[in-house]
């Protein structure tokens, strides 16, 4: 814990920012799609979908032709937040704590907050749930959304607002946009930094009738490179969700226009990885989870009428690691960033300059690829000129042996460094009871279980524990209590009518709280009614809070264990979340 506090102090000390004239600072809005492929937009050549508002961002601003993200979600978000390769911030997975961004990394929220901006994040975070990994601890004054890698229900789901559990209102993408728009209106007179990471088209493929009806019987006139693997209803749902995102982008842009602040607001749009399925993607090889072109190439549009010429097209090799230094530079922020992997691309946007020679490394699991200029060295160690061959069907290493050998040597060095981190066991405990946090959350996805208990699904994110039927069963979390105190322990659970009455013990070392689960909470499975294709994730339930009582937690590493001393009937409960609310 001393190490963590020292890291936080170092972060604060390095955020030395000269105050700027707030009337001249541009506002910034970052729009991020989840699992949307490069080819899911009409501006990129998709003839089936209509995305006029996103297309207009490109037409009225700059389009990056060779912009790259990571193969999956959490690493992309970490690179955007810090300008550093994700593995260097110990973001090596998407669940079980491996998505957490190390505390020695300052975020884009930290920098803009220190510069006097109002900072808000609305949507999917996916870089840590507990303080100080939580967005409110990473530079964002306001947070509304969820911290998990995916969410199991998009219609009025459980969410959080600055750490407190709340219920959403309506379809999630629309709801997140509503909150972002309200924040923009509240802070229209002063500079704001709004991060709006949408939840779609990540599965489950839930689409409301408003957006599905025009797609459910539509003929698909374009297909992916692996057409035999394409689920056409999955594609229809993804493109329907793309049109819903576009509508929400239009709402944001209309708000800026009505407030008369659109000329001095920088708006960015990109996606976090390749498409989450086989569908048309510009004939590129690969999808989400791969390091091929189709898995990591993303659109990037940046609109700023005050400084960026409409219709600008940028060929420069670029990535999400470049957004932090670029946005700081565009806003006039002179903060010294220290060691980062990204480069400042502001000159590409505001001046006609030649391309900067640079490399870009992409990795996920045991897979990796390496870019330099127009050349791609693939995971299979084939060399391609992707300007001419984005499908990766014509390897050229025999024609370019010197370039091949040089890139192979560089890629091997990156692989050696990254694998030392990504293949190591993550020993960081989950942190709770931080002095700056009133609500400490231990979701089922971060916990472990024994006995008869099992997860509702093999994918931990947005799962819950079920089949709790014996007094030999237990659920536990390895944690570190940051500061001693007294807490109200609250479970979010379901329990069928007639099954209530089990005696529950919650413990931390020798400290115990014993309570009777005296109230049933009957629930059916939620989500199927909006699913347009069968899901792989858990269906959700109507989890409700139940207070177990008060418990005292002592500072230090411990194990939080919840078990049943007496199973009153056939089962105890399904457990989704354990919350500790600080009392003193």
From TrEMBL:
Q: What is this protein called?
A: Sulfatase N-terminal domain-containing protein
As for family, the record states: Belongs to the sulfatase family.
Q: Name one GO molecular function term.
A: metal ion binding
- Which organism does this sequence originate in? bioreactor metagenome
Q: What is the lineage of its organism?
A: unclassified sequences, metagenomes, ecological metagenomes
Q: Which PANTHER family match?
A: ARYLSULFATASE FAMILY MEMBER (PTHR42693), ENDO-4-O-SULFATASE (PTHR42693:SF53)
Q: Which Pfam families match?
A: Sulfatase
What are the protein's UniProt keywords?
Calcium, Hydrolase, Metal-binding
Indicate the segments forming the Sulfatase N-terminal domain, all copies.
26-332
């Amino acid at each position: 814990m001393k190490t963590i506090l020292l890291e936080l102090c170092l972060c604060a000390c390095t955020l030395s920012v000269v105050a700027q004239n707030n009337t001249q600072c541009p506002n910034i809005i970052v729009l991020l799609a989840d699992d949307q492929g490069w080819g899911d937009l009409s501006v990129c050549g998709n003839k089936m979908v209509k995305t006029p508002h996103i297309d207009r961002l490109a037409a009225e601003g700059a389009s990056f032709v060779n912009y790259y993200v990571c193969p999956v979600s959490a690493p992309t978000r970490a690179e955007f937040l810090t300008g550093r390769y994700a593995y260097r911030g110990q973001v090596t997975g998407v669940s079980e704590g491996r998505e957490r961004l190390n505390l020695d990394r300052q975020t884009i929220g930290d920098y803009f907050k220190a510069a006097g901006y109002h900072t808000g994040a609305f949507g999917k975070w996916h870089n840590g749930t507990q303080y100080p990994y939580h967005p409110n601890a990473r530079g964002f004054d306001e947070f509304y959304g969820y911290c998990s890698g995916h969410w199991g229900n998009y219609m009025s789901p459980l969410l959080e607002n600055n750490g407190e559990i709340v219920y959403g209102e309506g379809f999630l993408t629309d709801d997140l946009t509503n909150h972002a728009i309200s924040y923009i209106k509240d802070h229209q007179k002063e500079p704001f930094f709004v991060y709006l990471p949408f939840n779609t088209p990540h599965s489950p493929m839930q689409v409301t009738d408003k957006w599905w009806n025009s797609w459910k019987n539509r003929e698909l006139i374009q297909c992916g490179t692996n057409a035999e693997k394409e689920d056409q209803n999955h594609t229809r749902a993804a493109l329907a969700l793309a049109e819903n995102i576009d509508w929400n982008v239009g709402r944001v842009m209309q708000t800026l226009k009505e407030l008369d602040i659109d000329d001095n607001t920088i708006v960015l749009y990109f996606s976090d990885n390749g498409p989450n399925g086989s569908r048309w993607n510009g004939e590129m090889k690969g999808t989400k989870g791969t390091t091929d072109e189709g898995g990591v190439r993303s659109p990037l549009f940046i609109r700023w009428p005050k400084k960026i010429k409409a219709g600008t097209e940028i060929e420069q090799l670029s990535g999400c690691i470049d957004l932090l230094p670029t946005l700081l530079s565009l806003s006039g922020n002179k903060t010294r960033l220290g060691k980062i992997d990204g480069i400042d691309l502001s000159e590409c946007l505001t001046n006609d300059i030649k391309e900067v020679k640079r490399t870009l490394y992409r990795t996920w699991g045991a897979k990796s690829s390496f870019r330099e200029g127009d050349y791609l060295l693939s995971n299979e160690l084939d060399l391609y000129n992707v300007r001419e061959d984005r499908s990766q069907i014509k390897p050229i290493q025999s024609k370019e042996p010197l370039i091949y050998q040089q890139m192979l040597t560089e890629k091997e060095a990156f692989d050696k460094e990254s694998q030392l981190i990504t293949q190591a066991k993550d020993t960081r405990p989950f942190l709770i009871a931080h002095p700056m946090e009133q609500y400490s959350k231990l979701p089922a996805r971060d916990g472990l279980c024994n006995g008869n208990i099992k997860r509702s699904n093999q994918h931990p994110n947005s799962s819950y524990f079920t089949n709790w039927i014996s007094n030999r069963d237990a659920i536990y979390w390895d944690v570190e209590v940051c500061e001693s105190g007294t807490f109200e322990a609250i479970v979010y659970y379901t329990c069928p009518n007639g099954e209530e009455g089990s005696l529950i013990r919650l413990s931390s070392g020798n400290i115990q709280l014993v309570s009777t689960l005296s109230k049933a909470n009957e629930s059916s499975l939620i989500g199927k009614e909006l699913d347009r294709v069968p899901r792989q994730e858990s269906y959700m339930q109507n989890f409700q809070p139940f207070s177990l009582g008060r418990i005292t937690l002592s500072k230090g590493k411990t194990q939080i264990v919840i078990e049943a001393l007496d199973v009153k009937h056939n089962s105890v409960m399904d457990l989704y979340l354990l919350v500790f609310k600080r009392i003193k």
